[in-house]
Amino acid sequence: MKRFPSPWIGLFLLAAGLLLFPIIFSGPFYRDIGVTFLLAAISASAWNIVGGYAGQVSVGHSMFFGLGAYTPLLFYTLWGWPPIAGIPVGIVLSVVLSVVIGLPTFRLSGHYFSMATIAVAELIRIYFGTWTLVGAAIGLQGPARGRGWWDLTFRSELPYYYMFLGVLALVLYITFAVERRRFGFYLRAIKASERAARSLGVQVRQTKLQAFALSAAFTSTAGSLYAAKTGFIDPDSGFGILVSVQMVIIAALGGAGTLFGPLVGALILIPLQSAVNTKFGGGGSGLTFIVYGGIIVLIARFEPGGLYELWQRLAPRLWKSAHAA
Amino acid sequence: MKRISLLVAGLALAAALCAAQAARAADPVKVGILWPLTGNAAAAGQASKAAIEVALDIINNAHPELGNLPLAATAGLPNLGGAKLEVVFVDHEGNPSTAQQLATRLITQDKVNVLMGAYQSSCSFTATAVAERYGVPFMVGESSALNITSRGFKWTFRATPIATDYARTYMRFFADMKREGKKIDSIAIVNENTDYGTSVGDAIVAEAKKANLPVAIRIPYSASSTDVSAEVLQLKQKQPDVVIFISYTADAILYMKTIKNLDYKAPMIIGDDTGFSDPSFIPAVADIAQGVMNRSAWDIGKPGSTTYKINEMYKAKTGRDLDDTSARNMQSFFALADAINRAGSTDAEKIRDALTKTDLKPDQIMMGYQGVKFDETGQNILASTYLIQLSGKKYDLVWPDTAANGKLQWPMGSGAH
Amino acid sequence: MIFVQVIVGGLLLGAIYALFSSGLTLIWGMMNFINFAHGEFVMLGMYAALLVVTWLTGSPIVFGMAAALALFVLGVAIYFLLIRYVVRGPMLSQILSTFGLALLLRYTAFYVFSANFVSLPQTSLAGTLNLAGVYLPIAQLVAGAVAITLTIALHLLLTRTTVGSRLLAVAEDRSAAMLMGIRPDRMQALAWGLSAGAAGVAGALMATAYPWSPSVGETFGLIAFVTVALGGFGSVLGSLYAGLIIGLIQAASAFWLGAIYKDIVVYGLFVALLWLRPQGLMGKA
Q1: Do B129 and A231 make contact, defined as CB atoms within 8 angstroms?
Q2: CATH class of domain segment(s) C2-276
Q3: Which residues in chain C are contacts of B257 at CB distance < 8 A?
Q4: B232-240 mean pLDDT
Q5: Which end of chain B is more exposed for a tag (fewer CB within 10 A), N or C?
Q6: C275: nearest CB among A59, A104, A300
Q7: Which residues in chain B are closer than 8 Å to A155, comparing Cβ atoms?
Q8: Cα(C45)–Cα(C216) distance, integer angstroms
Q9: Over residues A282-309, mean pLDDT
Q10: What is the C-alpha radius of gyration for chain B, rounded to an integer number of angstroms?
Q11: What residue ranges do the domains of chain C occupy?
Q12: What is the structure's pLDDT at A214?
């Protein structure tokens, strides 16, 4: 019987596909979808570190995304600084926030933690809506024309695409490294049973905080990239609950706690969103979100491990039947 | 024999060429419109969509009964060989990133010639940036953030009045009222706290400062509040002479009801359009909100007038009267179509040029503006607004005097009603 | 005088918060499960009221009961179709299930009812009482009174009846309850029905006084979480006190700090509560 093909082939195909996509599909609209997909994959992969691997389901990750999105545009608006300068600041702020939030809330289990994260994100969103320094409800804009590459304002989608691809590769690589190290085992142990993990000597609190901080840093980066590409941010697009929910859904759809799960989730959901909007939007029936909601309920009900788990179950059977006799 | 067949052949050839020419010239001109057709602002998006569909009917078919309204009398765009206008509507769902993507799609896939949109300022910011990048004219309808037209963009135009226009209108109105002896020692501003309410609220605060009119209290609130009693109680405490509400529909209705319930007798209440002009406002609170003022650049007018006929067309389609927001979008659309016609071509630069040269007179527009003329930032400098007052089950135009068809009651509820 | 007015207003609204939160706390206490779609139940109750008023009668008793019944059935159905399967599963799928449900319910409502804000036409509860300078809108007064009554009724149902003790038994210890011959599945379905029904009635009561649209579920959901956190997960009586307190805090902060700060105060309180006293006023830790 033939051996199951090496995963390296799949990886190679994926990498080739991602690299060549904007060259093959050179229309700006398709490239824009590609960029949106990459952004969603980055955010979901970032969330995955703490939500998927460690099982701490945060539904308020938009707090980091928003911080990362606001800082570059704030520096530009206040002092004319290139947005790129704001990215590291956003990361630092997000990491600090993650520790500040994590310390008290990681004491809480499961649902409580999720609710706390929702409440904090909402609180920040409402507060930013009242804070004139950051544009209050109107929001902030980025440079209309780039003064140099550091303004991260490009006329074509291509630079954004490859920049985001680079960041995605980084997030995935770090997740991969974490997966194989002791840290990754600790995360999975915590997800399986905190009590058991603690009894085995895992520093549960510290580990959770580290995962949260790592996740926050990458989520913040995703936010900064979003601000660079869209050139605009306001409380809703930065800190809104749909931002958080989307990250969770995409990771869960593909398979939370797996390396490529979020990427697969994004690969399916982002083009699907565009397609549904193209087909039904303009007719204005809100079907996009009904479809969204339906998909999530179905995943939760039938395949909580997401498509990845589904594939794990079906692939050997398909392979066997294809090579039977 | 030969000469006749030659003649026939020649005529046939000429006819074929003419037909080909006509066919080419009659290619529809495409307009891409980005609106929130789902989500919180969907009601406004849908209402405006219906208004544009009526406008399309007026432009594409002959409607000589609509007077001097440009493009009404003819079918299609005369300077483009009778080409029809075609609209591609897209739903950005209130998401600025989606608006950006859809603008890209409209330009590069659907190949629209011009764009319009996008209601929420956040979406207008991103969509106009795309249009600027590709060099496609973008007509902004209804987005109130001031700096949409102050980014140095060449391709963005806005035919509607903006927050500063409204604020100045209110100040001029107060000046008039003071001259007539009414007491206006302080005002209160109650604004919902998204970009709309904040922009207009800020503008009023700025203009009030210039006019030396104290603002007794400014109350920002969330439009999705369940209960506004605390806000009304704050007003009761401060006793301003005029309260200006900048609200969406549900909150406008809620405020009127709460004011009645808590027995707050304000000398004058002015609603800043939007919620107060929504078709569901009057049926919900007519009994308790008599005398409330509102601003509108749209007035249905007397039966037989052009505006009345337009309203009838809209009513036939949707069952409701045309509201101010949708009317303003409709007017922006007419201005856009008129510019395309004057350009005589679908070339972007020519359309842009025609837009900058726009000079529509009051009898050519359906709104109460003094005209449509864009300054170098793309803003219509002749946009203005009326003030109207709720009397019975409808609003009467009460200010300025030159256009008024009803008598202004001040304080509210002091008249014969 | 204004002071009293603020307090009264806050308490009346708080009573309604208490009613719809009581359902959430019941589920929580019983199954250690959070229903992120709870706010949508309230929203659907409002629409149920609207449908009854439009097609049948404006009698508040009728539309109140109709909302209760419709949502009760929905709650039971949701339990059997969805919740039963996810409750033993991983945390992620539990959270996802009701989140997805919330989206589904909310956007189906958008599809069916459109995004327009609606309000009930004037019912028999119009008018305002004036009691020594304090204004009491009749609709809100009745809504508040009914809400308190129903919440107490729910509490009594749980603590004084056989059915109630069965529900609590399942909450306390599922396996032990099974050994006693109680069917946990049925009890949990009943709990979902009661939870949704209570939310539905609360919605119908709110509909008499406030306008709404399909998107109101989100805010109500969050308020329910805060109320439950304050009152203690699992305690209906706790959510009664907590609802009243939250209503009061909201009204007071709106009046003294400013309307936009009232939500910040409430959420801030929530986070502080989760941190300092997760079991709330009267809950089991």
Answers
A1: yes
A2: mainly alpha
A3: 209
A4: 93
A5: N
A6: A104
A7: 133
A8: 12
A9: 78
A10: 24
A11: 2-276
A12: 96
CA distance B80 to B71: 12
- Is the Cβ of A296 closer than 8 Å to some Cβ of chain C? yes
In tens, the pLDDT along B376-411 reads 889 998 888 889 999 988 888 898 888 788 888 888
- Model pLDDT, residue A1: 46
Q: Are B352 and B154 in contact (CB under 8 A)?
A: yes
- Do both B134 and B179 map to the same domain? no
Residues in chain B within 8 Å Cβ distance of C137: 261
Q: For residues B55 and B149, state if they share a domain.
A: yes
Claim to verify: residue B238 and residue B343 sit in the same structural domain: no
Q: Which of B213, B211, B215 is nearest to B201 (CA)?
A: B215
C-alpha dist (Å) from residue B255 to A145, A210, A273: 44, 48, 38
pLDDT confidence of B417, banded at 50, 70, 90? very low
Answer yes or no: do B270 and B326 share one domain: no
Rounded mean pLDDT of A229-236?
93
Q: How many domains does chain B have?
A: 2
Indicate the length of chain C as a whole number. 285
Q: In this structure, are B34 and B157 located in the same domain?
A: yes
- Domain range enclosing B187: 164-296+386-399
CA A159 to chain centre: 20
ipTM over 0.85: yes
What is the average pLDDT across B151-157?
A: 91
Q: Considering only CA atoms, which of B331, B334, B296, B327 is closest in space to residue B311?
A: B327
Q: Is pLDDT above 90 for B96?
A: yes
If asked whether residues B268 and B330 sit together in one domain, one would say no
* Three-class SS state of B400: coil
CB contact, 8 Å: A271 with chain B? no
**Is the Cβ of A29 closer than 8 Å to some Cβ of chain B?**
yes
Nearest 5°: phi and psi at C233? Answer: -65, 120
The reply to whether B404 falls in a domain is no
Residue labelled with tokens 């990427």: A263
Residue B340 domain-assigned (yes or no): yes
In a domain, B416, yes or no: no
Single pTM value for the model: 0.89
Are residues B154 and B237 located together in one domain of the fold?
no
C78 pLDDT more than 90: yes
Mean pLDDT score, A272-297:
76
pLDDT class of B1 with cuts at 50, 70, 90: low
Q: CB-based contacts of A65: which residues, under 8 Å, 6+ apart?
A: A43, A219, A220, A222, A223, A226, A238, A239, A243, A244, A247
Q: Which long-range contacts (CB under 8 A, 24 or more apart) does B43-47 make?
A: B43/B249, B43/B278, B43/C114, B43/C115, B43/C116, B43/C117, B44/B119, B44/B142, B44/B325, B44/B326, B45/A284, B45/B91, B45/B119, B46/A284, B46/C114, B46/C115, B47/B318, B47/B320, B47/B323, B47/B325, B47/B326
Confidence of residue A47 (pLDDT cuts 50, 70, 90): very high
The answer to whether B89 contacts A282, with C-beta atoms less than 8 Å apart, is yes
Residue B13 within a domain: no
Task: Measure CB to CB from residue A232 to each of B93, B122, B198 and give the nearest one.
Answer: B122
The verdict on A230 touching B (C-beta cutoff 8 Å) is: yes
pLDDT at B16: 53
Q: Mind listing the pLDDT tens digit for each residue in B17-50?
A: 555 444 445 688 999 999 998 777 878 888 899 9
Q: Please tell me which of the candidates A105, A115, A300 has its beta carbon nearest to residue C86.
A: A300
| CATH at residue B223 | 3.40.50.2300
- Using CA atoms, how far apart are residues B390 and B294, in angstroms rounded to an integer? 8
Chain C interface residues facing chain A, Cβ-Cβ under 8 Å? 28, 32-34, 82, 85-86, 89-97, 99-108, 110-111, 218, 222, 225-226, 229, 260-261, 263-264, 267-268, 270-271, 274-275, 278
Asked if the Cβ–Cβ distance from C115 to B39 is below 8 Å, we say yes
Residues B155 and B179 both lie in one domain: no
